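Practice set, problem 2.
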Amino acid sequence: MNHDQQIEEIFHEALELSGEERETFLDDACSCDELLRREVESLLLYKEKPESPLRFPAFEDGFQVLAESDGDALVGKTLGHYQISPASARAEWERFTLRKTSA
C-alpha cells in the first residue's frame, strides 16, 4: 500500500469514529509516523469546514479519479465548481490543487 492509499484508508476509518475513540485509533494506525498522522488530521479538520468540498459526496468520486490518474491529463479540467491545477511544491505528496471557479 502506498502512502496516499494509507492516508485514504486511515482517513475513512477515522471518519466513522469521534472523540477519544478517534484519537486512540489514530495513535494505533499512525503509530510512529508523525507525518502520516498530521496529514490524516489535516483532512479530518478540513472535512469539518462548512465550505469544504470534502463534505459533498460527489467529490469523493472525483478525488478517486485524481488519485488514480497520471496527473497531466487532468490539469485544466473542472470538477464541479473547481478547476484542477498542478500542485505547488508545498508537500511532496500533493499532486493537485482545486481552485474554485465562478458558478
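Problem 2, part (b): a different protein.
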Amino acid sequence: MTQFWPNVNQNISVNDLILCVRRLPARLDAKQAAKVLGLQPHDVPVLVQAKHLVPLGKPLDNSTKYFAAIAVEQHAADAEWLDTATRIIAKHWAKKNARGTAPTQMDDAA
C-alpha cells in the first residue's frame, strides 16, 4: 500500500484514515459512517432498519448503502441523535440476545 502521509503509524487501517482527512468525501459507506459516528459497522444496518439513519437514494436491501457525509457529521455532533441511536442499538441487541437457543445435551450434562 502506498503511504500517503510520511509520519502515519503503520498500524492504522485504511478505514481509520477516514478520521484523519481534512474534508470527508461526499459519500460514506457503512464502515466509514460507523467510524465517524463512533459505532461498530454491524450497528449501521440496525439504525437503517429503524429509519434513524437514512442512506442516499433508494438502495435495495442487499446493495451497498452510502450516506451523505454532511448528515453523518451532523448526527455525530448531535447528542440527542446519538442518545436515540444508542437506545435503538441496545434494544436491538437485547431483543436478539433474549431469543436465546434451546439448551443442548451438553448443557444438560453440565
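Answer key, part (b): The helical segments are 30-37, 44-49, 69-76, 79-99, 105-109. The radius of gyration is 18 Å.
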